[in-house]
Task: inverse folding
């Protein structure tokens, strides 16, 4: 039974680690998208800071196209962040479940070990009691 329990503990630990890795990947994806969004916001702010100058980009309309592209890309990033957060919620729930299963398996293993220890101690107690009776046995009585 202990070999089965050891295998169960290994499997639940592996499943927990996989679930946590999936959650970490989802967190990293959201962080990457937020960093890209911050970079785009920085580009937009820099463009607005230069708004008092009339340069060739503005005269050709490239600035409007650029702002349109930035707005479109920002929307795509926002959508990606929303999807990353949805995946993150799903992977967090899976990680919590895997963690709970792993903890439950560890608790079952601890209880089994305690039961085996208690049974071994009870057997030892019976043997010691029998030995003490033999040691105090007086055949002349």
Result:
């Amino acid at each position: 039974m202990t070999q089965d329990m050891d295998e169960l503990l290994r499997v639940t630990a592996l499943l927990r680690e996989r679930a946590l890795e999936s959650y970490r990947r989802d967190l990293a994806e959201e962080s990457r998208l937020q960093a890209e969004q911050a970079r785009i916001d920085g580009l937009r702010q820099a463009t607005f800071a230069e708004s008092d100058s009339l340069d060739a980009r503005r005269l050709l309309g490239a600035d409007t196209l650029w702002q349109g592209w930035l707005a479109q890309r920002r929307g795509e990033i926002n959508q990606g962040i929303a999807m990353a957060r949805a995946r993150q919620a799903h992977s967090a729930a899976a990680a919590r479940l895997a963690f709970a299963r792993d903890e439950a398996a560890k608790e079952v293993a601890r209880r089994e070990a305690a039961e085996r220890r208690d049974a071994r101690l009870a057997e030892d107690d019976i043997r010691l009691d029998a030995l003490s009776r033999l040691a105090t046995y007086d055949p002349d009585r």
About this structure: The radius of gyration is 33 Å. Residues 68 and 86 are 27 Å apart (CA to CA). The mean pLDDT is 88. Residues 2-106 form one domain.
